Amino acid sequence: MSKNLRPGDGRDNDGPDWNLNPRVIFVLEDHPKLFPWQELICQFQGLITALNGRGFPNTPVPPFQLSPNPSIKMATKATSKDSFGKESIVDDFMYGSNVATAHVYIRMGFLRKVYGILSVQLLLTTITGFLFMSSETVTNYVQQNHWMLLVAMVGSIGLVIALMIYKNQTPTNYILLGLFTMFEAYCVGTVVTFYKVHSVLEAFLMTLVVAVSLTMYTLQSKKDFSSWGAGLFACLCVLLVASFLQIFFPTVLMDRMIAAGGALLFSLFIVFDTSMMMHKLSPEEYIVASVNLYLDILNLFLHLLRLMGERK
């Protein structure tokens, strides 16, 4: 089932990890100048993606199945086969059952990977949005060619599913991650072209402050916020339904409520996913962690832009 309803440590040997799928649809922000069925398609795909996440058990991964780091000297050892078929030795104590219990060397390496990947994703998205807004030719092109936005929407959903299936297969996971980020950047870049520059900048700065503040708080806190999952998923379903109804019964008040509720919800998701990253994921699931946080930050930005932004 979706990430917020499953017990365990967030890892799965027998099937793909469907942790982030329901939230991907909110990145595909609606706008009245875009084709009228865009939001309906987004909501439908989001519901299908959420349903597809059912039925995958969360089987813990034994420490000796994790990829080794040959540079580490080990106290407790076990032998295994690495991805190239060669015999290797892994320290189960230093890896631990999750990131929080792993050795500090492993933990810091994991965090560097996650936030390094996340920084590249956000930088690419920011540059794409800037280029789309700064060139009138590009702005007109992306606003008039709705089929490209549709391709990016469908492609991002397909890629996020493929990414969860091949999350531990290098370099396939990095190729999928790059394509997924490009599609998401195109969607966000298209949305910001409909807003004035000062509105986009305000939403960007507010998102930056909120994301950094919540991340620092969660990493410094000794609390485990991963128990919020069921409540956040329930709120996400309510937001999905409300957004779906907004298509057929549009009101300004409902639009503002959805935007404000979405901004609050994805702020909480940043706390939740940061905590999940530390307490429920293994040191090798940095791709899952970075994509979850990337989607949280994009969705927070888009809902803040929807709430406060001034359209052209």
From TrEMBL:
Predominant cellular place of this UniProt entry's protein: membrane
Biological processes per GO annotation: negative regulation of apoptotic process
Membrane topology annotation: Multi-pass membrane protein
Residues that span the membrane, as ranges: 114-134, 146-166, 173-195, 201-219, 231-251, 257-274
Subcellular location as annotated: Membrane
Keyword S-adenosyl-L-methionine assigned: no
Keywords carried by this UniProt record: Membrane, Transmembrane, Transmembrane helix
One Pfam match: Bax1-I
Protein name, per record: Transmembrane BAX inhibitor motif-containing protein 4
Source species of the chain: Magallana gigas (Pacific oyster)
Origin organism lineage: Eukaryota, Metazoa, Spiralia, Lophotrochozoa, Mollusca
